[in-house]
Amino acid sequence: MASGRGYTQMISRSPHKMREYLCVFAQEHVDFRMQELLAICEGLRHEIQYESSRYSSKSPFLVIRMLSDQAVKEVAKRSVLIRGFYELWAVGTSYQELEASFGERREDLNQYFSEDVSFRLRMDCFNKKCSLARQKAMLERVEFLPFKGKVNLKSPNVSIHLHEDYGPSPNDAPQDPYMIYLGRHVAEGQRHLMQAYDVRHRHFIANTSMDAQLSFIMANMAMVKSGDLVCDPFVGSGSILIGCAYFGGFVVGADINKVLLHGRGRPSRSGTNQKWRGPDESIQSNLVQYGLQERYVDVLASDISTLCWQRRELFDAIVTDPPYGVREGARKLGRSKPAEETAGDKDGSEASAQYPLVQSCSLSGVYKDLLEFAANYLVLGGRLVFWLPIVKHEYDPANLPSHPSLRTVANSEQGLGGQISRRLLTMQKIQSSLNMKSADTCGVVENFRSKYFKFLTSKDSTYSPST
């Protein structure tokens, strides 16, 4: 809903005065940044305001309003797409405007300019080299700051940051910045998690193990919080569950590939002489590796189309990456004979006994089963977060998978090269619908595998009807 001075206001509840902060995003996965920020704020019940017309995927800077430093710090503790937050002291298109902007807020900042407050000043240039000469020039331009305390570069009481924005093109940067921001550092994002949870250093991986950063983004989109019960029905090696467990969720998974679930077979890691997986390779061992073993519930050899759980609203979130058929095919349990033929086999012989038979299935069938699973097993208000592969020239947002009990609340794209990409869809359960089977998946790309390799190997990745 709209708020004063053109700000878009989310989760509006508090009558208290909002404070301005500069949010500095990482310049990657740009289509996910705002979606992650808003999901985190909604999950934490923190009010946020921002001017939507000022946000650009080509810039890392966005001025927002929140209630307090504490609220900002709680958001920063979850985000992997935010570099940092700064209390905004001044903003301008020139240093003259910056000084005038600072003068308007000067009285509210006196606490930072006493003799017993140590400080440091850091400079940063976006899309332009911030040389020592440039840093010296920037420092001279902010001599209007009335600091009285001592300089402390290692552990100051207050850290002041000066950001210059030179626009979207590093190869065509102007002589002077488009925008200048001055602010007090408040909190860092969780960028360190990508290295700490890097899949390359993980004990147990598979061919389709999810990237660590994307796993944390998915957990944030699902608004996983401490005590939630989270399910991945296509769990594979359990990478997605790690992000959910990190944020306090109790995790459970299921997969039709029982060989992988038990850590058997040949390893997926390249550059190793190991012929077979070790006896301690498992999803649980990965959680133990990161000290998250207390969040592990169990994993089941199960097929999402043949449910083994009692049908009831059970999970706070379902977070998953279904098989697209590129590396891992879409499969389900089926029958070796039609139902009417097996009904006539009464001799009790082994030949007539029916064992589960793994069969291939359509991609639309996979997503139909997933949406119906979520509609039945999610608690009211719970979220379903999943990836959907698309061919760009065929993509139509009106044909996304849907279900009457689920409302799409976020839709972000990750390009995979050429005409191929995948979209991260977030749906929220809005009504109870036990036993309802009415998912619509007519827009799902059925022959995605063939189209994937077609556009991947072709010299021209653009679409032509004749090809």
Task: Write up this protein.
With about 475 residues, the protein is an alpha/beta fold. It has helices at about 35-45, 70-75, 95-105, 130-140, 195, 210-220, 240-245, 260, 285-290, 340, 365-375, 450-455; strands at about 10, 20-25, 50, 60-65, 80-90, 120-125, 160-165, 180-190, 230, 250-255, 295-300, 315-320, 330-335, 355-360, 380-390, 405-415, 420-430. The chain has an 8-stranded mixed sheet with strand order 1-3-4-2-5-8-7-6. A hairpin with a 2-residue loop joins β16 and β17.
Uncertain parts: 1-6, 342-353, 459-467
SSE string? EEHEEHEHEHEEHHEHEHHEEEHEHEEEH
Largest sheet: 8 strands, mixed
Secondary-structure content class? alpha/beta
Helix share of residues?
Answer: 10-25%
Q: How is the largest sheet built, in terms of strand order?
A: 1-3-4-2-5-8-7-6
Please sum up the structure shown.
By secondary structure, the chain is an alpha/beta fold. The protein has helices spanning 33-44, 69-76, 95-105, 132-141, 193-196, 212-221, 239-246, 258-261, 283-289, 339-342, 363-377, 448-457; strands at 8-10, 19-25, 48-50, 61-66, 82-92, 119-126, 158-165, 179-188, 229-232, 250-255, 296-301, 315-320, 331-334, 357-360, 378-391, 406-417, 420-429.
Blueprint of the fold:
Layout: E1 8-10, E2 19-25, H1 33-44, E3 48-50, E4 61-66, H2 69-76, E5 82-92, H3 95-105, E6 119-126, H4 132-141, E7 158-165, E8 179-188, H5 193-196, H6 212-221, E9 229-232, H7 239-246, E10 250-255, H8 258-261, H9 283-289, E11 296-301, E12 315-320, E13 331-334, H10 339-342, E14 357-360, H11 363-377, E15 378-391, E16 406-417, E17 420-429, H12 448-457
Parallel strand pairs: 6-7, 9-10, 9-12, 10-11, 12-15
Antiparallel strand pairs: 1-3, 2-4, 2-5, 3-4, 5-8, 7-8, 13-14, 15-17, 16-17
Helix pairs in contact: 6-7
